[in-house]
Amino acid sequence: MRVFLTVVMAFACFMAFAQSEKEIIILNLMSKEPIAEASLVDKDQKIVAVSESNGKIVGDFSGVYHVFAMGYDIQKYQTSETTIDTVFLKVKSYDFDEIVVTGQMRPTSVRESLYKVDVIGIDQMQSRGAVNLTDILANEMNARIVHDNILGSNLILQGIAGENVKILLDGVPQLSGAGGGFDLSQVNLHNAEKVEIVHGPQSVQYGTSALAGTVNIISKTLEEEKWQGGLSAYYESVGQYNADIALGRQWKKWNINLGGGRNEFTGYASPMVTEARRMNWNPKVQYLGNAKIFRDYNKLRVGFIQHFFHESNTSKGAPDPSTGGRTANDHLTTSLRMTSGVFANGEIGKNWYLNILNSYQIYSRNTASYLVNLNDESSKKRSEAEDEFALVNARGSVTRSQLLEDRLNVLLGYDYSMQSASGERIDKERDDLRNLGVFTSVNAKIGENVETQLGLRYEYNNTYDADIIKIGGVHLPLIPSLNIKWNMGSKDHFFRFSMAKGFRVPSMRELYYDFQDANHDITGNRDLGAEVSDNFILSGSYVLVQEESRKASINPFIYYNRIHDKIESVYKPSDAPVGRTYENIPYFQTQGVNINVSWEENNQWSATVGSGLLGRTGTDASDQFFWSPELSLQSWYRLKLLQTKFSLYYKYNGALAQFELDEEKGLVDRTLGDYHFLDVSATRAFFHESLIVTLGCKNVMNVTDVEQTGEGSKGLTARTGSNSELPIAWGRTAFLKLTYNINQ
């Protein structure tokens, strides 16, 4: 009898233990295939189990967990009373469902936007080893980057350079400072959540300088009621050493986010540099800081933002032969940018959305010349000059949506800015530039498949008349735009069409700034007129395959820009290698076409192939077109065995010409030769994505200097000059990027 009772009790204990075990199956939401190496993480952020090749986890589990798997969104999981649970993970997506805010009436998805918007997320920044905007945009279609060792890296978008591209940081317009456009190397991505690139004009929303496109860097926001953050380190074999930190936390309705970093580049001399000590990629050290504090009032968010940037750029001179090579003249350029802003955005009632952003920004630039004793490296300051630019910007809008049974949305807004400048290199008889815009947009749905948006902006400038529209012989200061989106029977097949006027007044730099050093002699022109432009864009997306495990689409893009009285840098006689001033060109025109084909297979691999052709002409081209082709490939492959993602970014940039008329009105050009960029990398996540490691190679084709040919004197920007070669990149390099996320 005792033996029988012992057996029964043992059997009962075994059954109770067996029933306490739970089987969890981890599946792909789309394909329903099992996911291996998925981590089950408890509330203390500890990995308690990892799924097998069949997607199964077996054990004694109870309570709330999170499931992590590389390439998938994190999924919260609550155990049930059954013995078998199934958890579905969604593939990470940064395409049509990504929410964008730049230039929109209210936050909307890429698919539903009336504009063509490209989004570059954290995954792409990590796999590219991106440090600043230059790293992100260099491989994008329609984009070219031109470099100068003092004035920075300038973006050419849709064949248009300089001031016609709007750069925003958390929606705040950025001052261009001293270059022919905004220096992209001064926009660091250490705290970026994503980069939104809006193609085409945003002149109704943002006014001046928003013709070719708008680039908005969106900062991270950590919104958990615990301390979160991250540490990041970056090394590149050319001599780049970066480190940054971010921290954030939410207390009930309050939130604070802080960040900072340091970037150091030791400089690079390409093969075209033959003199000792000289470099065409100057050594520089950057310090970065950011803060964001806000409070939520129901669905309205009110807060404060602060961005800090400091850079020291050292230009080393060649040994002076007059002193037997014992001395040299060096230049130290120090840049400081401080941006402060207050904002309020969100819903203020049913179907009402408010967006207000007021900011103040200063940009100072100090250039000092030193006589350096090369025997003991001691130095003596010989001269110094400092300039300061300031920008006050106040903008706001309110949107009333879902009128007429959700068929009509109306936006009203204002935009005020004031630019000022001071310093030894600024014309003493300068005037501040003040601009006031009042704008409206009306969005209407026509039937089930057509959506239109009409925009209109009243523009006042204290120096220039914005007489853009002519009605009945009367010129009116109005800037119009029209957007149309047509869904071809499905939200996956659509076309977008946009047309808009643009208006741009000369910048403080183009009007009043004089810059001279050993290599540059650039002067402003007080007699410049304002630019008036027309832009037309046709883009679309057609889904070729839409299945649970695969997706393919084709995306055409056609654009046309015509600018009247375009402000161009033109040659002027000078002893410096780069002698330029500014003039109005009667008209300038660009047009082009791109086609991208994308394919993604079961979260296993993805490829996007693009091809394009850019044409440019104008008064200085005698109406002759100069053409430039482009090719691109962006691809990744996920090797499940190693839990590693391999990425490839390729871009072919065809020859690009600058054209002008010589003194005898004959057509001459200066053409930059073609070149290829290729970057490759491998990314692996460890400790349920707490540590992310990327190892890669940039510029595999080892591009450094690209030859310029032709008799023209005009370079791609004011700083290109007449050198026979132009520095494009600093050659082939290896890089390592480490990112450690804390409580994320």
TrEMBL record:
GO BP of this protein: siderophore transmembrane transport
Keywords: Cell outer membrane, Membrane, Receptor, Signal, TonB box, Transmembrane, Transmembrane beta strand, Transport
InterPro entries hit by this protein: Beta-barrel_TonB, Beta-barrel_TonB_sf, Plug_dom, Plug_dom_sf, TonB-dep_rcpt-like
Domain of life: Bacteria
GO cellular component: cell outer membrane
Signal peptide: 1-18
PANTHER family noted in UniProt: HEMOGLOBIN AND HEMOGLOBIN-HAPTOGLOBIN-BINDING PROTEIN 1-RELATED (PTHR30069:SF29), TONB-DEPENDENT OUTER MEMBRANE RECEPTOR (PTHR30069)
Protein name: Outer membrane receptor for ferrienterochelin and colicins
Originating organism: Aureibacter tunicatorum
Phylogenetic classification of the source organism: Bacteria, Pseudomonadati, Bacteroidota, Cytophagia, Cytophagales
